[in-house]
Amino acid sequence: MTRTAWSTVPTFLFLWLMVGFALGTFILVGPVRWLTGWTRSAGLGGGVESVLMVAVILAYVALSAFVARWLTARVVRSPSGLVRWGLPVLMLALAGGAFWGWMQPGLYARVAGGGAEERLAHAGGAEFVFGAYPNEARLRELRDQGFTAVVSLQHPAVVPIEPRGIAAERESAREVGIRFIHAPMLPWVSDNREALESIRALAAAGEGKYFVHCGLGRDRVNVVRRMLERDGVRLAGQSGAPATSFADRREPMERGMPVQLEEDVWLIPYPNEHELFGNMLAGQYESVVSLLDPNVPEEAAWQDSLSATLRGYGVRVRHAPLRAGAPDEARVLAATVRRLPRPIVVVAPRTAPQPDTAVAAAFQRAYRSVTAEEERAAAGGAARGER
User: Fold this and answer.
1) What integer is the mean pLDDT of 184-202?
2) Domains and CATH numbers, the chain
3) Residues 6+ apart with CB under 8 A from 136
């Protein structure tokens, strides 16, 4: 190996490490946050998200190596001492700043939008709260709030950050007096089967209150949350745990009140995620009809998300966009809905007391005024269409 190679290879490895740490922190806090948020809002599912994250990781490795190689060439070939020493010192400072940020509990969680906590009441009886890495003061709050345990998803392979965090939290939990459960996960590059099975066991026990966290409170906790939601839906539909319907609601939905048209027919506003999981996905409704208009951008996005989510649970959505100023169309649609397998839920953009409820009002009037003759005509048209 030549003398130049002896100086080039260590320089490249050093710069690659520094560039990789600083660039990796930026990508995790920024682009990864935006990409995962987009996949979830678009209803693309965990499989698509994992594929995209693997692509991001590969692109990150290639980009960091390219930048490190470019910097190495500048350092090795430059006659200027300022460049030869200044560039490595600059990259060391950037990586050091990123490292310092990881040492501040909750700092990147706040920057990356992962600090907000979410709750999930599992159908089996256990309760889970998802959030970011808890400091000792937060652990004391969790203990005083009656939490059974804190569940850490941090992995010792994520060096040098997470081994230190795991050890510190384990010690803090011991001092505070709250149980510490370690279920290490590596997002996107592993199936994390062992960790997920250990959390499934907590849910299967049917009791307890658990605070589940990773570092940022975003990616790994979302994997766990999706898994528990899927399992909880199946449990609600297959076990003795009740699957709640809109008849069980005692409070308004985000975009209006659900309206009972008949004993087993409901007109509801477009549901948010919690309303969807809580009242529709455990098999409560045989037929789902969407009145959302794909020509309205907001409603088109809602329709895509609704279809993608329900399709993942084997529920078909019938799309029947309705215009507020078309009473004849409303009557034909209402007559058709009356003939669908029951229970039925019809999704409008909004319902009273929210504004912009003309579509819901038009369908409600039409449904309650449809004659038996119109209903028979709708049934005949459906039969001819099937033939």
Assistant:
1) 81
2) 3-102 (no CATH), 118-238 (3.90.190.10), 246-386 (3.90.190)
3) 172, 175, 176
